[in-house]
Design brief:
two-stranded parallel sheet, Rossmann fold, alpha/beta, single chain, binds nicotinamide-adenine-dinucleotide, 10 helices, binds uridine-5'-diphosphate, 312 residues
Length: 312
C-alpha cells in the first residue's frame, strides 16, 4: 500500500484530496494545525485504518515513519480575510513549510506536489492566463503575504527539482468552491450563499464587474491527482475556464434561491484582480483533464451543504 502525506489535510480542498486518495487505495497521513481548517472535514475518517492525522504546524520541521510515495504540500491560509489576519503564518506556510515538505520528500525519495495559485499572476495583464505568463504582483500589497509566498514556494520547488533531481509538480489552482468551505471564510462563494440563506443582501465589492472562473472541488482534485502521477515538472493551471462577473455570480446564486439578487455595495479591496480565467490547454494536453461538473450542479451541491450545516 502506497503512502501519501497531505499537509493541511483538514482544509477544504485538501480534505477532498484525502478522500480521493483513500478511495484509490492509498494510506494517507494528514498534517494540520487547524489554523484555518476544520476537524469536521475529516471526522468521517476517524475509524478509517488507512488514515491518520498528525496535529502539527508544518512551518516547523517534521518527519513520519516508513516509506512515502507522495507528498502533497497543501497547507496555507487561502482566503483573503485569513491571510490578511495572519500574514506571517501565511508567509511561513509558503516558505518554511514548503522547505520542510520538500525536505521530507527528498528524505523519502517521494514525489512532491505544491498547491500554488492563480494569485501568482497577480492582477493579470494577459487574459486568459497561460502558465508562461510571469504575472503582475504588488510585492508590498495586502495580498503579498500570500501571492509572494506562493511565488517563493514555486521557486523553492523548482530549485529542489533542479539541484536535487526531486520529482516535483506545481499546480496553479484557480478559484475553487464546493462543500466544506467555511461559511465565514470571506470568499465570495460562501459569502453570497450564506447571505442568501440568511435573507440578507450580498456584499458586492466594487461594482461587481471583476471576473472569476469557478471550479468545482471534485474536478480540481482529479486534476491534482493526475498531475502528481504525470512526468511533467513545470507549473500546470487547474481551474474552470467558465468566466463570469461577480455580479453575474450573485445573480446565479439568487436564481437558485428563487429570489431577485440584492446587493450591498462595499469598497473594492486593494489589489483585487480585475479579471481571472485559466488557460487550461496544458492540463488538457498533458493530463487529459478538464472540468466536468456544470456550474449550476456545483452551486446546488454547495448550497445543499451549507443548508445541512445550518440545520445540524
Ligand atoms: P483551507 O484553509 O481550507 O485549507 C488549508 C489547510 O491548511 C487548513 O486545514 C489549515 O488549518 C492548514 N494549515 C495552514 N497552515 C498550516 C501550517 N502551518 N501547519 C499545518 N497546517 C496548516 O484552504 P483551501 O482553500 O482548501 O486551500 C488549500 C490549498 O490550496 C492552499 O495551499 C491554497 O493556497 C491552495 N489554493 C486554494 C484555492 C481555492 O480556491 N480554494 C485557490 C488557489 C490555491
Ligand atoms: N467578493 C465580493 N464580495 C464578497 C467577497 C468577495 O464581491 O463578500 C469579490 C472579491 O472582491 C473578488 C471576488 O469576489 O473580486 C472573488 O473573491 P474571493 O475572496 O472569493 O477570491 P479571490 O479574490 O482570491 O479570487
Amino acid at each position: 500500500m502506497k503512502t501519501a502525506i497531505v499537509t493541511g489535510g483538514a482544509g477544504f480542498v485538501p480534505s477532498h484530496l484525502v478522500d480521493r486518495l483513500l478511495a484509490d487505495g492509498l494510506r494517507v497521513i494528514a498534517l494540520d494545525n487547524f489554523v484555518t481548517g476544520n476537524r469536521s472535514n475529516i471526522a468521517h475518517l476517524e475509524d478509517n485504518e488507512n488514515f491518520s492525522l498528525i496535529e502539527h504546524d508544518v512551518s516547523l520541521p517534521f518527519d513520519v515513519e516508513g516509506d512515502v510515495e507522495y507528498v502533497f504540500h497543501m497547507a496555507s491560509p487561502a482566503s483573503p480575510i485569513d491571510y490578511v489576519q495572519i500574514p506571517v503564518e501565511t508567509l511561513k506556510a509558503g516558505s518554511y513549510a514548503t522547505h520542510n515538505s520538500l525536505d521530507l520528500a527528498l528524505r523519502k525519495n517521494a514525489r512532491f506536489l505544491l498547491a500554488s495559485t492563480s494569485e501568482v499572476y497577480g492582477d493579470p495583464e494577459i487574459h486568459p492566463q497561460p502558465e508562461e505568463y510571469w504575472g503582475n504582483v504588488n510585492s508590498i500589497g495586502v495580498r503579498s503575504c500570500y501571492d509572494e509566498a506562493k511565488r517563493y514556494a514555486e521557486a523553492a520547488t523548482m530549485a529542489y527539482h533542479r539541484a536535487h533531481g526531486l520529482d516535483t509538480k506545481i499546480v496553479r489552482i484557480f478559484n475553487t468552491y464546493g462543500p466544506r468551505m467555511r461559511l465565514d471564510d470571506g470568499r465570495v462563494v460562501p459569502a453570497f450563499i450564506g447571505q442568501a440563506l440568511a435573507g440578507e443582501p450580498m456584499t458586492i465589492f466594487g461594482n461587481g464587474s471583476q471576473t472569476r472562473s469557478f471550479c468545482y472541488v471534485s474536478d480540481l482534485v482529479d486534476g491534482i491527482w493526475r498531475l502528481m502521477r504525470s512526468s511533467y515538472n513545470l507549473p500546470v493551471n487547474c481551474g474552470n475556464p467558465h468566466e463570469m462577473t461577480i455580479r453575474e455570480f450573485g445573480e446565479a446564486v439568487a436564481r437558485h434561491f428563487g429570489i431577485a439578487a440584492r446587493f450591498d455595495p462595499k469598497p473594492l479591496p486593494p489589489d483585487d484582480p480585475k479579471v481571472r480565467k485559466p488557460d487550461i490547454r496544458k492540463a488538457q494536453e498533458l493530463l487529459g483533464w478538464q472540468p466536468i461538473v456544470e456550474f449550476d450542479a456545483g452551486v446546488a451541491q454547495t448550497i445543499a451543504f451549507f443548508r445541512n450545516q445550518q440545520m445540524a
